[in-house]
Design goal:
The chain has 142 residues and is an alpha+beta fold. It contains 6 helices and 6 strands, in the order H-H-E-H-H-E-E-E-E-H-E-H. A 3-stranded antiparallel sheet has the order 1-3-2. Strands 5-4-6 form a 3-stranded mixed sheet, with no helix packed on it. Strand 4 and strand 5 form a beta hairpin. The longest helix has 13 residues. The radius of gyration is 17 Å and the shape is globular. 20% of the residues are buried.
């Protein structure tokens, strides 16, 4: 995930109707610099001195609800988060043993979406999807 400037992150907040606060900017900077999605505990640890835990939870959820941050299910019994707005759409390959995560940039899911909609009795469109792959990295299979 590419790093973003403070100005770009501030613009992102304004475009989604959020006030630009030092705490929100710090939150987005933490996510922009991360190599993989972060758990809320990891975010809290990185921002402990800048924001209290309740504020971090509220900010993360509010920004996820408008698509600035994406929720990622890594099968750890809690949600992870990553910056999504303005980033290239991608999925993740996750090692079930050590947790190493790799971005999967190519997404050829359109055919599956069309098939799902053809078979659906109640849905007319799909607006977004989430897909994570779980397996074992080369290091853990040795």
């Amino acid at each position: 995930m590419k790093a973003r400037t403070k100005e770009q992150l501030a613009t992102l907040l304004r475009e989604t109707g959020h006030k630009v606060t030092p705490g929100r900017l710090s939150l987005l900077q933490v996510l922009a610099k991360a190599d993989s999605p972060l758990s809320i505990n990891e975010i809290v640890t990185k921002l402990k001195s800048e924001m209290n835990q309740a504020t971090i939870y509220r900010a993360v959820e509010a920004l996820a609800d408008v698509g600035v941050i994406r929720r990622v299910d890594m099968q750890h019994a809690h949600t992870h988060y990553e910056l999504s707005a303005g980033e290239k759409h991608h999925h993740h390959l996750i090692c079930k043993m050590c947790g190493v995560t790799e971005d999967v940039e190519r997404c050829d899911i359109e055919m599956i979406e069309k098939s799902v909609l053809r078979r659906s009795k109640n849905f007319a469109s799909i607006k977004e999807h989430s897909l994570e792959f779980f397996g074992y990295c080369r290091k853990c299979t040795r």
